[in-house]
From TrEMBL:
Residues 51-280 form the Radical SAM core domain. Pathway: Cofactor biosynthesis; biotin biosynthesis; biotin from 7,8-diaminononanoate: step 2/2. Residues 331-346 have a biased composition (Low complexity). Keywords: 2Fe-2S, 4Fe-4S, Biotin biosynthesis, Iron, Iron-sulfur, Metal-binding, S-adenosyl-L-methionine, Transferase. Residues 329-370 are annotated as: Disordered. Binds 1 [2Fe-2S] cluster. The cluster is coordinated with 3 cysteines and 1 arginine. It comes from Hyphomicrobium nitrativorans NL23. This is Biotin synthase. Its cofactor is [2Fe-2S] cluster; [4Fe-4S] cluster. Coiled coil: none annotated. [2Fe-2S] cluster binds at residues 112, 143, 203, 275.
Length: 370
């Protein structure tokens, strides 16, 4: 029997809005779970193929020793005595490009690079720019996460051809100072606005499980959805409580509560990629499947997210096969563009070369808070 998918009708929530009130967001969040999921899945189907998933990958180009004090982060110099993580220097440009070349050969078209900085120093910008230019010259899209940026930094990155900048708002404005004291919520929004004004695409989300209230989670999404433009990517992380950080004893997030946040993000930002980011190792297949049904359509792949574990690509592929999901076609490319030696199996992975040994000992933060 042939089964035809009937397009679902538009709903009131299925418009691009930037004027959400916290009350209406909270009311959607609090819907009976089945109604919430149905609504989120309906919105998703209007804008995306629900059986396709975007795969992203990170390379840590500079690990540890960060001057910020984010309570969840192993890369903070403030927590180094507890975590034992040593700071590394900025990776050499040629080494980054060599990793990127391998990624390209395996089919990657987007390459994400993260550095554990409060903000980049002038002396580092030349290398960072060379990395962006070098990766762009290979024909891949670039994404960077480097902390707060000045106008000058943004211009340099834009001129180098940077496509995306990741800068998460972490949590609500109200709860922010309970987690981070070395910068303010407004600092985050300033950098996001500089990046957007320069014409660089925005990747920005937050973390669930920092000890925040449900209201804080909703407010975080209201802030993102009420930006002048929605972030093109919205990573939603589930806290990985890292030993030696101030949040090492945080309670695990209730899976249903987490899925509600994914669904709300999907409904409020219908055309954004909602990325299931850090914390997937703690999620069952069933929980991830529910997140995908609720509107998550992007993941980080690979066995580490900087320092934190992540399900390997094999495990992901088994899950995708069970769910009948396939990686999204590479933007502007074809399945065979990646290179003659690339096998079909490799092309179904994220195609990235994987983190270096240094990056593998880094942290989850490029996916959670940068
Ligand atoms: S989350 Fe980012 S900014 Fe915060 S301490 Fe870690 S590396 Fe630094």
């Amino acid at each position: 029997m042939n089964v035809h998918v009937v397009p679902t009708p538009a709903t009131a929530a299925d418009s691009i809005r930037h004027d959400w009130t916290r009350e209406e967001a909270q009311a959607i969040h609090d819907l009976p779970f089945n109604d919430l999921l149905f609504r989120a899945a309906t919105v998703q189907r209007r804008h995306f193929d629900p059986n396709k998933i975007q795969l992203a990958r990170l390379l840590s180009i500079k690990t540890g020793g960060c001057a910020e004090d984010c309570g969840y982060c192993s890369q903070s110099a403030h927590h180094a005595s507890g975590t034992g993580l040593k700071a590394s220097k900025l990776m050499e440009v040629e080494r980054v490009l060599s990793e990127a070349r391998k990624a390209k050969a395996q089919g990657a078209t987007r390459y994400c690079m993260g550095a554990a900085w409060r903000s980049p120093k002038n002396r580092d910008m030349a290398s960072v720019v060379a990395m962006v230019e070098g990766v762009k010259a290979m024909g891949m899209e670039t994404c960077m996460t480097l902390g707060m940026l000045s106008d000058d930094d943004v211009l340099k990155l834009k001129d180098a051809g940077l496509d995306y900048y990741n800068h998460n708002i972490d949590t609500s404005e109200r709860y922010y100072a309970s987690i981070i004291k070395t910068r303010t919520f407004a600092d985050r929004l300033d950098t996001l606005s500089r990046v957007r004004d320069a014409g660089i695409k925005v990747c920005s989300g937050g973390i669930v499980g920092l000890g925040e209230t449900i209201e804080d989670r909703v407010d975080m999404l209201v802030t993102l959805a009420n930006l002048p433009e929605h972030p093109e990517s919205v990573p939603i992380n589930m806290l990985i409580a890292i030993a030696g950080t101030p949040l090492e004893d945080q309670k695990k997030v209730d899976p249903i509560a987490f899925v509600r946040i994914i669904a709300l993000a999907r409904i409020m930002m219908p055309t954004s990629y909602v990325r299931l980011s850090a914390g997937r190792t703690e999620m069952s297949d069933e929980m991830q499947a529910m997140c995908f049904f609720a509107g998550a359509n992007s993941i980080f792949c690979g066995e580490t997210l900087l320092t934190a574990d992540n399900p390997g690509e094999d495990k992901d592929q088994v899950l995708f096969a069970k769910l009948g999901m396939t990686p999204e076609a590479l933007e502007g490319g074809t399945d065979t563009e990646a290179g003659d030696e690339t096998t079909a199996t490799e092309r179904t992975s994220c195609g990235c070369a994987g983190p270096s040994a240094e990056a593998a000992s880094s942290c989850m933060t490029a996916t959670s808070a940068r």
